[in-house]
Amino acid sequence: MNEFEIIRRFFSHTYRDDAVRLGIGDDAAVIAPSPGQELVIAVDTMNKGRHFFADVPPVTLGHKILAVNLSDMAAMGATPRWALLAGSLEDSDADWLAAFCAGFYTLAEKYRIALVGGDTTRGATSFTLTIIGETPAGKAITRGGARVDDDIWVSGQLGDAALALAAIKKQVSLSPENIALLRQRLEIPEPRVALGLGLRDIATAALDISDGLSGDLRHILESSQVGARIELDAIPRSPILNAAFKENKTLALHCLLAGGDDYELCFTAPVSARAHIDAISQSLELPLTRIGQITADKSFHIIDENGRPLHRLPDAFDHFAHTTHA
Amino acid sequence: MNEFEIIRRFFSHTYRDDAVRLGIGDDAAVIAPSPGQELVIAVDTMNKGRHFFADVPPVTLGHKILAVNLSDMAAMGATPRWALLAGSLEDSDADWLAAFCAGFYTLAEKYRIALVGGDTTRGATSFTLTIIGETPAGKAITRGGARVDDDIWVSGQLGDAALALAAIKKQVSLSPENIALLRQRLEIPEPRVALGLGLRDIATAALDISDGLSGDLRHILESSQVGARIELDAIPRSPILNAAFKENKTLALHCLLAGGDDYELCFTAPVSARAHIDAISQSLELPLTRIGQITADKSFHIIDENGRPLHRLPDAFDHFAHTTHA
Questions:
Q1: What is the pTM of this model?
Q2: CA B101/CA B106 separation, integer angstroms
Q3: A33 — contact with chain B (CB < 8 Å)?
Q4: Residue-level pLDDT at B315
Q5: Which pLDDT score is estimated for B16?
Q6: Do A128 and B135 touch (CB under 8 A)?
Q7: Contact status of A323 with chain B (Cβ, < 8 Å)
Q8: What is the ipTM of this complex?
Q9: What is the pLDDT of residue B326?
Q10: How far is the alpha carbon of A162 from chain B, nearest alpha carbon, in Å?
Q11: What's the burial of A282, exposed, middle or buried (CB within 10 Å: 0-12/13-18/19+)?
């Protein structure tokens, strides 16, 4: 297959969207933004050997490249609308591409995302997705609005994706069933889009936890010029990760606090919003957990089970310091 | 340097633009599109060893990744506004990045492009740029509007970038002065943004010649459901390429008709627009040349100097068939 055949065969499948005036097949796409809305735009790259294993099932990879970008939309409280996918491929394996597309388009259709453009080139396998969403003007949730005494919340459970990676690398021993469960969390993350939309008029700040709670929360603290006090015991985790604390506490703590790839949301909201947030949790059937408070003192403490602050917080996932999927 | 230091040091330089409500540093950027405008969006990837040599001067690479995307905006008649840059780097060489950014930002400032987002990861060196522009609703120039008897025009001169590549690969012998001249055309293409804007109400179809005239023009013919008759002698070329026809006609013809990387515009317009287009040419000090006509007969002929159609037209640059910069 040459470039044009690949595009025709795999990347011309567009969700029908009246706002798309011109889709794939010209020098650029043309879309009509909705009146009164602002555009929310993000881009994420995933490289083989860095963000995914060479033998990852392509169907999960197709899901994940879109999911991580949808997660950015969720963190902004935006409605995702349009995507552009740039892919570098080492060869043009039709079966592999078909599986990749199955994962991609299944998720795209669920959220009604129209793929409006892309670029297909030869190179080390890598995907870069640009996502464009909309919010009513002035309503995007940023990192800069957290206020003193706000609650700090997280969705779902943290650390499972990192624990999956540790298990795959044999840094911890788990049953095959548990590895399979965790691997789903690593490879098929569910973006919290509905939660982000629900939080639009409630959260004072939000982000998605892609690089680990302790590093990512710092971004909110720096942007908002505040501090935080977190209760370690309050951070939600799976029974599997809880059990891992007994085997290897350092590793388990690292997964919980600095594990990337969970794509849960961390957000702040005033105490008065607790009932509203609990109602959102129930309607979405998604656990939302208060893990601490925003403080005027600009320091960041995580308080352990003995009431003492952890001395050293694990660093965030740094795309230039580690190699995780080699 | 880690990822966050790289972003802070090199990628936080934003052209001041009141439409940018939130720039680099959150989960996504927020921009306010102009009322009454449609968005025009494209993405292009450049990979080391594929689209550029490993030893390319980084200042020219920073220019080119933006230039090829601006060229897509030009081909649509769009005003480029905002960009997102995803970069995979093998290491974090501050001098190399500083030079890359000098090339990028010089061109960005010239066209008042605000860099609003990006992603920095480790991997085989690769850059993917997403560009977003605007046109008044319904005014984007597509590939599908060419009409029978329209003139076919090209800007500038074709084939120099491909000839530069041939010279670098020692497929043709040229003086060092001529190689240096041609290399500028390959490495520092000038996007025809002002021309694209000037053609908005004149051209019936347009595209930028990134993969070679003969392949790219076919896209207009297929989209518009028409044919074309081109005069080979009319295709504008530099004196250096003209001289190369004497040494190696096959190679020179290939450069002229199938050479990628020129980033000139090819467009169609009614005969009645000739004077208007000549005036644009004069005001922009950019040669615009009529090379043939659109025909009702859906075939595509290039007529040689003896009045005979060329039997085989060179193929377009295919990103899965060749390796040009290995």
A1: 0.92
A2: 8
A3: yes
A4: 60
A5: 74
A6: no
A7: yes
A8: 0.91
A9: 44
A10: 18
A11: exposed
pLDDT tens sequence across A100-120: 999 999 999 999 999 999 888
Chain A contact present for B315, CB below 8 A: no
Give average pLDDT by consecutive 10-residue segment, chain B, 326 residues: 73 77 92 96 94 92 96 98 94 89 94 92 93 97 98 97 92 92 92 98 96 94 97 97 92 92 96 98 98 97 93 61 48
b/e map A72-96, b = 16+ CB within 10 Å = bbbbbbbbbbbbbbbbbbeebeeeb
Fold classification of A151-303 (topology level): Phosphoribosyl-aminoimidazole Synthetase; Chain A, domain 2 (3.90.650)
For residue B180 the two structure tokens come to 């240096």
Pick the CATH number of A3-136 from 3.90.230.10, 3.50.50.60, 3.30.470.20, 3.30.1330.10: 3.30.1330.10
Fold match between domain B3-136 and domain B151-303: no
B65 — contact with chain A (CB < 8 Å)?
no
Side chain identity at B108, as an amino acid letter?
A
Residues of B (112-141) whose Cβ lies below 8 Å from A = 116-124, 126, 128, 130-133, 135, 137-138, 140
Domain segments of chain B as ranges: 3-136, 151-303
Residue numbers of A between 143 and 162 with CB closer than 8 Å to B: 143-144
Which chain A positions have a beta carbon within 8 Å of B207's beta carbon?
26-27
